[in-house]
Design a protein that fits this description.
The chain is 38% helix and 22% strand. β1, α2 and β2 form a beta-alpha-beta unit. The protein has helices at 4-16, 47-50, 98-112, 135-147, 161-167, 266-274, 283-294, 304-322, 331-350, 356-367, 375-405, 410-420, 424-433, 440-457, 471-491, 519-534, 546-551; strands at residues 21-22, 60-68, 84-93, 120-125, 154-159, 173-178, 183-185, 198-208, 233-246, 252-265, 497-502, 507-512, 538-545, 565-573, 578-584, 599-608, 611-618.
Length: 623
């Protein structure tokens, strides 16, 4: 059985032999992309080049991209979901097309990995108004299956998953046509794409773990098919053929440059090679489990679901820390904190011995040598949160025992969280062990009541870190917007706001930047801000749809989720139409920059890896 490292190496060598340049994995923290917290696919860092920008290393690229998807946190514990994973990728930037891509991937899977072609099925775009069925891919797949002795591979028109479930698979069918599942764009299905958005059909490959069909259960639909969620099939790769662009009238035109964007699950391929539908059986996780047993952290049998959560969350947290993420109460830091706390919680439920985290980290450095150079930073960063949360659980243990002894209610569960910081998830697991039922809907209702009370209590308090709405605070708030724009002009557009706090004495502004600012850079920022103040630019508020604001290049807080309708503040000169800054914001602001007063930077310092902080003030308007 091949290891994850061996599969990755063979993949990169294979595509290198096809004329591809191997590029490094990008950071898990995206650069210059405020729309998402994490890198979740290999194509994400390459979007500018897929849209036509020239890549310096050429038109054929390949890599293995480390990826993270926070939306899968709650799903971890079954046999296939993980939050951190690697995505094998290869790209053609206006070079080769379907005739090369599909045979190459089929060759890699069947000849290099030696996966049985009898277990493989594929899906293609079934067609819709304005975009025809992908007849080319159907013909290519029929030829490829035929060359492996699978004659007369039939095409099945499935269209939707519901239709597929009602129809079922027929003998000889290998190629399945869907709509929603086999179209790629950043906005989803063709009808959801905005004008100018690129997209195109894709073709997925599936592996069949159970040719007998015994794995399928009625709750997943009447009949099984490749896109069924019963677990029989698993997708191992997807070739996207980006060739269309949405026109103003809703129709599609061909792009001047056709691109191929392939993504394949590294761990999923390793899973297939184990012959069992359990991703936690691959070598990376199996090695960690063996190390935990060998070191005495695990003794005896354990709950497999809980162990899977610990293994996945610890692994994901280690890789996030390796890319500079530190725990905080928002953005990437909040997700990291949640991962660590869930890992600690399930480790507690498993009664794992104290050094469990160190064992996981040591085991991963064997599989991923790149972690070794940051090992001290990773352990120091995560150990603080592990110890802190372990102490919290320990201090709340006596109280929770008292609560259970008298019979626990939904209000009790909420109070344990609110008063002692005891996680609801942990209370739920302790209750399950004791055979005690807690109405989860009632617990969530208590949380909603608390949130509503918090909103009511904070009525009149402005968003964005403002202490109040006094004249000085409002002036400083507008100055902060000017400073943000000036920082992006001086340091580059990699600067993004990470947080702010404004009082009458000063504004405190956190932003992304990897190194200490020079005195010259600070003076330049001050000069730019004071020049705009001196020109007395207008500060204009507009309420508009979020998409319209994004088209106007309005920016906001990194990782912030904005509603469909937003307030946008623009600092501009109505006479010349020059726009100095445009940001999402709830206000309040001055009406003209001349009201701010002289701006000065008081202090600039580091607050975390890749995060800097500026404290600044403004003088009296007449000074």
């Amino acid at each position: 059985m091949m290891t994850v490292n061996e599969i990755r190496q063979k993949y990169l060598e294979f595509f290198k032999s096809k004329g591809h340049r191997v590029i490094p994995s990008a950071s898990l923290v995206p650069e210059n992309d405020p729309t998402t917290l994490f890198t979740s696919s290999g194509m994400q860092p390459l979007i500018p080049y897929l849209l036509g920008q020239e890549y310096p290393l050429g038109k054929r690229l390949a890599n293995s991209q480390k990826s993270f998807r926070a939306e899968d946190i709650e799903e971890v514990g079954d046999n296939r979901h993980t939050t951190f994973f690697e995505m094998l990728g290869n790209w053609s930037l206006g070079d080769y097309w379907k005739e090369e891509q599909l045979p190459w991937f089929f060759e890699f899977v069947t000849d290099v990995l030696k996966i049985d072609p009898q277990r493989l099925y594929v899906s293609v775009w079934s067609g819709a108004e304005g975009v025809p069925k992908d007849e080319d891919s159907i013909a290519i797949w029929q030829k490829l299956f035929g060359e492996k002795g699978i004659k007369d591979a039939k095409y099945a028109e499935m269209v939707t998953e519901e239709a597929a479930s009602e129809r079922g698979m027929q003998p000889g069918e290998r190629i399945f046509g869907y709509q929603k599942k086999n179209w790629w764009s950043r906005s989803g299905a063709p009808d959801k794409m905005p004008v100018g958005e690129p997209g195109g059909p894709d073709s997925e490959m599936f592996y069949d773990f159970d040719p007998s069909g015994a794995m399928h259960k009625p709750e997943f639909g009447k009949y099984c098919h490749p896109n069924c969620d019963c677990g029989r099939f698993i997708e191992i790769g997807n070739s996207v053929f980006m060739e269309y662009r949405k026109k103003e009238d809703g129709s599609f035109e061909k792009l001047p440059q056709r691109n191929v964007d392939f993504g394949g699950g590294l761990e999923r391929m390793a899973m297939v090679l184990t012959g069992t539908p359990d991703i936690f059986g691959i070598d990376v996780f199996a090695n960690i489990s063996r190390s935990l047993v060998k070191s005495g952290v695990i003794s005896g049998s354990v709950d497999i679901r809980r162990l899977r959560v610990v293994l996945d969350h610890a692994r994901a947290a280690i890789f996030l820390a390796n890319d500079g993420v530190v725990q905080s109460n928002k953005g990437q830091g909040y997700v990291l904190r949640r991962l660590v706390r869930r890992a600690v919680m399930f480790a507690k439920l498993l009664d794992l011995n104290a050094p469990w985290f160190g064992v996981v980290l040591d085991s991963l450095t064997e599989s991923y040598p790149e972690l070794k150079q940051n090992k001290v930073f990773i352990e120091t960063t995560l150990r603080e949160e592990i110890d802190k949360f372990s102490d919290l659980i320990g201090s709340g243990a006596e109280e929770i025992q008292k609560t259970f002894s008298k019979g626990i209610t939904a209000i009790d569960a909420f109070n344990l969280h609110q008063t002692y910081g005891f996680p609801w998830e942990l209370t739920k697991e302790l209750a399950k062990e004791r055979g005690v039922y807690i109405d989860e809907d009632e617990v969530q209702e208590e949380f909603k009541k608390h949130q509503e009370l918090s909103r009511t209590a904070s009525a009149g308090v402005f968003k964005g870190g403002l202490a109040d709405s006094s004249e000085k605070v409002v002036r400083l708030h507008t100055a902060t917007h000017l400073m943000n724009a000036a920082l992006r002009k001086v340091l580059g557009e990699s600067v993004w706001q990470k947080g702010s706090n404004i009082t009458e004495e000063r504004t405190r502004f956190d932003f992304t930047h990897g190194e200490k600012m020079t005195e010259e850079q600070k003076k330049e920022v001050e000069k730019i801000v004071n020049d705009v103040i001196a020109r007395d630019y207008e500060v204009k508020k507009e309420i508009m749809p979020l998409e319209e604001a994004r088209k106007l290049n309005a920016i906001g807080v990194f990782g912030e989720k904005y509603p469909d309708t937003v307030s946008v503040y623009t600092v501009w000169d109505p006479k010349t139409q020059e726009v100095f800054s445009r940001e999402f914001c709830g206000g309040p602001h001055v009406t003209h920059t001349g009201e701010i007063g002289k701006f000065r930077i008081i202090k600039e310092e580091a607050v975390a890896a890749g995060i800097r902080r500026i404290k600044a003030g403004v003088g009296d308007v007449n000074n």
